[in-house]
Task: inverse folding
């Protein structure tokens, strides 16, 4: 019997990326579909070369330039310091590697996209890409997460795949208009992605749950220790962006509540404002420990989509901040807007300058939040089953609005 191949970002040392990739594998296991995740090793050189060519020719905004500069600075520090900082980064990467080796079921190695394309017809009856920001412009240029290598006689599925931004550069739009019609079943994670697909391909596709939301907090206990990693009450901080105001909010929250701050620092890049604001900054934290730290926190402050997801699953008092303060084309804020709107907790999205007493007085009706998540979850499971069975009606009917979201009520 042929298997389903998963094309995902399982290898990236990023908590959300790795957990959503695992959730996709878990979902297919739950549906009884034999599956494996395509190993990236042999393909990576080809993918990276295409990305480098894209970045070399792209007109970058200051947001992206600053991000790339931060990443370069982090690499330079690792090379020059060769001390504590480098050791801590190695500890974090080792934690990710251990999690990856324990939990992912990987394919054999393919040396090129052409090699993978030949194997598709022989080994797989479906190829599924998702979720996360796999259709960012650089990834579209790399032409791997587009599934353009999948033969016409093999079922192709995009599950909860995200463009990562509300607008695409013109070249990326042209490329998307070419690859989108070739994918048999498309679903997206954000309303902005739904509108992009409609405009570029004429297809009305559904918004479905991120794979991590397909499972309850209790089900996620299987990949983490039951015992809390940290004792006592604490504020867990997970910031990927560099905004000092967000750290300042957490510091003021600590003063107000008397809780200490446990923060994961210098994540995607070296961030100067990560220095000095937290009481504890553990480094040997993989995805399992990440979940544990969220689950046992008194408060959570984050600018992360997936940290927000798990905060809701574990009924935490959380505050989410916009990572990008300016409305650039590259801003990834739309995924937070969609998620918080879906769950009816838009007021949890802050700027960082709010009055702490007012914020701590805000309550969350988690019964309603979980009702909405359960409704979206049911719809998403049904969609995924239909797509894997290659049923032809997974796109929304023409009468549905572009921003339709069948699983979630408007109120």
Result:
């Amino acid at each position: 019997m042929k298997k389903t191949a998963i094309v995902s970002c399982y290898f990236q040392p990023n908590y959300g990326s790795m957990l959503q990739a695992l959730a996709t594998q878990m979902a297919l296991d739950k549906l009884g579909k034999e599956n494996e995740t395509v190993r990236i090793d042999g393909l990576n050189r080809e993918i990276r070369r295409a990305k480098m060519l894209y970045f070399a020719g792209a007109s970058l905004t200051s947001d992206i330039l600053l991000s790339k500069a931060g990443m370069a600075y982090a690499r330079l520090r690792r090379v020059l310091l060769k001390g504590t900082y480098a050791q801590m980064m190695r500890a974090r990467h080792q934690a990710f590697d251990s999690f990856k080796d324990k939990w992912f079921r990987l394919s054999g190695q393919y040396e090129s996209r052409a090699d993978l394309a030949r194997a598709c017809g022989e080994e797989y009856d479906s190829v599924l890409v998702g979720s996360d920001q796999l259709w960012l412009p650089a990834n579209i240029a790399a032409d791997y997460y587009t599934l353009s290598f999948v033969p016409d006689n093999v079922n192709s599925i995009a599950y909860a795949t995200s463009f990562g931004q509300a607008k695409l550069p013109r070249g990326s739009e042209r490329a998307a208009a070419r690859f989108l019609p070739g994918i048999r079943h498309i679903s997206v994670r954000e309303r902005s992605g739904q509108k992009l697909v409609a405009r570029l391909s004429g297809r009305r596709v559904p918004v479905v749950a991120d794979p991590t939301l397909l499972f309850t907090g209790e089900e996620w206990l299987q990949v983490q220790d039951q015992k809390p990693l940290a004792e006592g009450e604490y504020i867990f901080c997970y910031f990927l962006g560099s905004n000092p105001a967000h750290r300042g909010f957490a510091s003021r929250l600590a003063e107000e509540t008397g809780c200490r701050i446990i923060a994961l620092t210098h994540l995607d890049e070296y961030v100067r404002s990560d220095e000095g604001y937290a009481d504890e900054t553990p480094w040997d934290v993989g995805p399992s420990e990440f979940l544990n730290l969220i689950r046992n926190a008194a408060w959570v402050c984050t600018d992360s989509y997936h940290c927000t997801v798990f905060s809701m699953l574990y009924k935490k008092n959380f505050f989410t901040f916009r990572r990008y303060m300016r409305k650039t084309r590259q801003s990834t804020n739309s995924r937070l807007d969609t998620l918080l709107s879906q769950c009816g907790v838009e007021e949890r999205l802050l700027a960082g300058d709010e009055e702490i007493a007012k914020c701590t007085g805000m309550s969350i009706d988690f019964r309603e939040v979980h009702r909405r998540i359960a409704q979206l979850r049911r719809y998403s499971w049904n969609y995924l089953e239909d797509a894997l069975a290659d049923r032809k009606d997974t796109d929304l009917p023409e009468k549905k609005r572009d921003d339709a979201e069948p699983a979630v009520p408007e109120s």
Remarks:
- DSSP finds 14 helices and ten strands in the chain.
- The first helix runs from residue 15 to 30.
